[in-house]
Amino acid sequence: MASNLIIVFLLILISIVTAKKTSIPHRHTIKTIRVMHGDIVDCVDIYKQPAFQHPALKNHTIQMKSSHLHPTEDTANSKTLLASQVWLEYGRCANGTIPIRRASNKPKRNVHPRKFIVTKDHSYAVALTTGYSYSGAKANIKVFNPYVESVGDYSSSQVMLRTGPLQSFETAEAGWAVNPIVYNDDKTRLFAYWTVDGMQNTGCFDLTCPGFVQTSRDVLLGGDISSFYASEITIQISKDPSTNNWWFKFNNHEVGYWPGDIFLSMRHQANLVQWGGEVYSPKVGTHPHTQTAMGSGQFSDPITGTSGRMTGILIEENSNPLKRPETLYPKSEEWECYDAYIVKEYVPEPVFYYGGPGSRNNPRC
Asked: Which letter, b or e, does each residue of 189-223 get, where b requires 16 or more Cβ atoms within 10 Å of its Cβ?
């Protein structure tokens, strides 16, 4: 009788453990934070983060702070913006550690999450500047939660710096995204991304592969930022002239950097800056077109401001102070599905409106 009870107890215990085993913690985890109905966050030793598995970073020394960026907002406001991240309501990583969102074990299709960006399945509506040597860019991006039709689609809004030809370009970019194939849900999340070969075989989101070096214990890449809905987040990417590291700032807070050593041409400069939205779907450019939305899901609207919007659009040239782009023009792959509009006159800094519903209640697309 006793032995039977022991067996039953063990079976129950095994079933509980199996049911809860939905993901695997990072092997250098020091602390785990569980967000109710949300993410699992592992606090990992800063010197054991994934970046150092990159061949170019074996002997890399962490640059804890940029040498050239300075706060442009008051500290209290910056802390308030950071506190709006959902995961911080449940705990915080200690000094000497960084937060890493634990990936789910749910099966995904065997595809590189951004490989298809240079194919017909990609659509974008952007403000674009080129023709100079760029060392940084900045914008305030209004946050939305656009409709995404299927698990294979995604919708994002970001600041991107790029150099090189289309099929093998190098890029560093950051912003927000609704990306079920990467994050296994339809929440709006903060992201950072890089590649050195046109998004074919290198690069990834956040810390899911070696590359980006995180220094902040307060910002979760891939974290839920739904609390910012209909308000703005500030994204800045800037190359440190002393180290050639490309720093990423979120709401005036240094998150970390893409080391110059993981790039080739972009180790020194970018030759194109792009602000705006993008949609990926196998149903882009076809009929019926995808219903996946961009921005707020509305076409550009400078009158009511209810569409996707970016303000404070600025660039850096050769590590000089931020300034207005000398040239800036709108561009869209599919104007009847997603469009773009720039206000440049009588404003201190350009304002960019963009977005659209795809084919959802939109027979023109």
From this structure: bbbbbbbbebbbebbbbbbbebbbbbbbbbbbbbb
- Find the catalytic residue in 170, 278, 316, 334: 278
Distance CA 239, CA 171 (A): 13
Chain centroid offset of residue 323 CA:
23
CB atoms within 10 A of CB 165: 7
Helix (H, G, I), strand (E, B) or coil at 350: coil
The DSSP bridge pattern shows strands 170-178 and 351-355 to be unpaired
Handedness of CA 167, 172, 178, 183 (dihedral sign): positive
Q: Is 173 a catalytic residue?
A: yes
Output the CA torsion 181→186→190→196 (10° steps): 20
The single residue listed with the structure tokens 């590590």 is 319
Cα–Cα distance between 145 and 188 in angstroms, integer? 6
Considering only the C-alpha atoms of the chain, give the largest distance between any 2 of them, rounded to a whole number of Å: 85
| Assigned token pair, 236 | 């800045």
The answer to whether the CB of 237 falls within 8 A of the CB of 248 is: yes
Phi and psi at 52, nearest 5°, equal -80, 5
Nearest CA to 47 out of 63, 62, 67, 27 is that of 62
Which of 173, 254, 316, 334 is labelled catalytic?
173
Instruction: Please give the Cα distance from 299 to 289 (Å, whole number).
Output: 16
Contact 154, 358 (CB under 8 A): no
The total of other beta-carbon atoms located within 10 Å of residue 323's CB is 11
Helix (H, G, I), strand (E, B) or coil at 223: coil
Tell me the pLDDT tens digit for each residue of 115-158: 333 445 889 999 999 999 999 999 999 999 999 999 999 999 99
- A 10 A CB-CB count for 59 gives 7
Q: Alpha helix (H) ranges present in the chain?
A: 2-20, 75-83, 180-183
Residues 6+ apart with CB under 8 A from 320: 135
pLDDT digits (tens, 9 = 90+) for 188-240: 999 999 999 988 888 899 999 999 999 999 999 999 999 999 999 999 999 99
Q: How many residues does the chain have?
A: 365
CA 167 from chain centre, in angstroms, equals 21
